[in-house]
Structures are given as structure tokens and as C-alpha cells.
């Protein structure tokens, strides 16, 4: 087949490396010839999906021949009531990933600078690059965001500063006082993007909550998602909260029907399912305690987490240990792509899944 002549591809697009998601459990089982695998690699909700969300989706099925509500009125109304905001302060997204994309599309021009921590969520760099911007990364300090260094890194060309709280992949979080101090150092013309994908799991009451900063003189855009605490990762539904002026710009650049009928219905119902949410927190917090106790028995260093996962230092054998866990049907996340080659990231699962992981890890470490 002859090679087609395409229009020139911009160098920033040509240089992109596609995001590599984890393989589905079914595919891994086929490849390895195993069954009954458990996935503790993607920070998903092990309890499944809110029963109320499932009921809402079932009721919405007959209407799938219609376009969704482009404004997402019911879900935005529910979010406005939950957070005490005007609907004009809320934008819905196809996952919180799309909120990042909308911000980059709206506020970055070729050569503009964005800041983020390193290591951090991989999509910051990719979406900044797609917009033609430059991403400057500031290393974590003791596995925490170095807010002082981020503030010092701001340049005249800086337009966006991404801060995730709790942090992914470390699971650490900064306090309200620390964030308040950071905002005093942010100059005019810069938007602070506070990624709170895991904020619901934070058990420390001192952890900063972005909703407390939406009226700050520095424009703060808070990103949240239904993928984690609410168990709707497969529907891709997230939202941004922020000043009306910023939200107005994001609404101008977003797709008119960017969230589906099912996603909107499920999100609205999940937000009201307090029982499912409470159980999710209980399972997560107990799972973290069990992991900590296991790692301490094995003499492994770990980073105490405010999220639904934990970062554990295995040592030079980390990749080999992850591969052996995989052969035993336990899927965890290697951290080499985050420049943490000696670490694994483990999501909290159901109690029996956590026990299986801990038993297999102990067996592997003991064999080593």
C-alpha cells in the first residue's frame, strides 16, 4: 500500500507518545492463561457502581435515541446544591481529563508555560503539549508537592499551574494553610488548577478543600470526578468548579454534547447515594490500614496516603515483583513511568482482594 501524503503534522503532535492504559483483566487472563485475576492498579472503586446510579441509568435507557441535555441542567443543579454554588460556576466534562483539555485549549497558546509537579498525572504534559504549550515540572519534596518551589517557578509566560491534592502517585496532600500561603505568591494572569480526583478519600480534616477557595482573588479551578469515590469510571463523567468568568470560557470551547444521557443520570443519582459513599470510605480507609500493617511486617517503606491507593517501595526488584504478582493473578501498577522504578502503586480493593495481594506479596518477598 502506498504511503498517503498528509498535511504537515506540528512537531509538538509528532512528538507525542500515546497514553498507555492498563490492559483489561480479560485480556491479561487470556495472555497469561490464568483466571480469577484481581486488578489493584487503576484506583477504581472495588464496590462497583452505586445502586441508585444503576437504577437511574436503567430509567434513562429508553431515551438514548435523543441527544443529551447539552447544559447538563439536572446534574449541574445537584452539584450546585451540594457545594453551595451557582450553576454558572460549574462545567461538566467527559471525565476530569476533559476539563484539563478545555483549560489548555482556552488559555494556552504556543510557547505559553504551564507548571506541574513531577512525578504527577501524565495527562497534564500531554494536553499542554497538544495545545503547543510548554510544561515545566517541579520535583516532589519528600513525596509531597513543593508548593513553595512551584510558586518560585512561575514566569511571565505562565498561564496555568496544576496542583493535585491528594497527589497522584504519592497519595500525599497539603493543608488549607499551605494552599492559602501558596496563593499569596501567585501573580495576576495565572489560573491555579486544583485537581481533586481523590479528595473524597482524604481522612485528615486539615487537607485543603478547593471549594473553600473559589472566591479567592487568584482564579482557582477545582476539578473533581465521579470515577473514583462514586464508581463511575466507565461512564467518563467529571466536573470543574470555578469563577463564572473562567467557566464561561470553558463552556465556549467544549463540545455541545460532551457528557452522555447515561453519565448525567448516573452522576446525579450517585451524588445522592450516601450509603454507597459511606461504605466506599469505610472499605478504603480500612484497606489502607491493612496495607500499612502488612508493609511494616515485611520491612517495606510506604507513603501514608490520603487517596484510595498507596505507594510502596519494593527496591530494585519492584518490576520483577510486579511481574510475579501478575503471574499469580494480582495486577498492580509499576511506577517506572513516574520515575519511581523501585516503587509499586497498589489500589485498595475489596477485603478479600487486599488479603490475596498481601499474601502473595509476602510469599514473593519471602522467596527473595
UniProtKB/TrEMBL annotation:
One of its Pfam families is Aminotran_1_2
Please tell me whether the keyword Transport is annotated for this protein.
no
Q: Which InterPro entries match?
A: Aminotrans_II_pyridoxalP_BS (IPR001917), Aminotransferase_I/II_large (IPR004839), HisP_aminotrans (IPR005861), HistidinolP_aminotransfase (IPR050106), PyrdxlP-dep_Trfase (IPR015424), PyrdxlP-dep_Trfase_major (IPR015421), PyrdxlP-dep_Trfase_small (IPR015422)
What is the protein's species of origin? Desulfoferula mesophila
Subunit info?
A: Homodimer.
What sort of enzyme, by top EC class, is this? transferase
A GO BP term here is:
L-histidine biosynthetic process
N6-(pyridoxal phosphate)lysine is found on 228
| MF terms (GO), sorted A to Z | histidinol-phosphate transaminase activity; pyridoxal phosphate binding
**Known EC number:** 2.6.1.9
NCBIfam families to which the protein is assigned, alphabetical: hisC (TIGR01141)
The entry assigns this protein to a family as follows:
Belongs to the class-II pyridoxal-phosphate-dependent aminotransferase family. Histidinol-phosphate aminotransferase subfamily.
Keywords attached to this Swiss-Prot or TrEMBL record, sorted alphabetically, are: Amino-acid biosynthesis, Aminotransferase, Histidine biosynthesis, Pyridoxal phosphate, Transferase
What is the protein named? Histidinol-phosphate aminotransferase
What is the catalytic activity of this protein?
L-histidinol phosphate + 2-oxoglutarate = 3-(imidazol-4-yl)-2-oxopropyl phosphate + L-glutamate
- Pathway of this protein? Amino-acid biosynthesis; L-histidine biosynthesis; L-histidine from 5-phospho-alpha-D-ribose 1-diphosphate: step 7/9
Q: Which cofactor does it need?
A: pyridoxal 5'-phosphate
Keyword presence, RNA-binding: no
Q: Locate the Aminotransferase class I/classII large domain: which residues?
A: 38-356
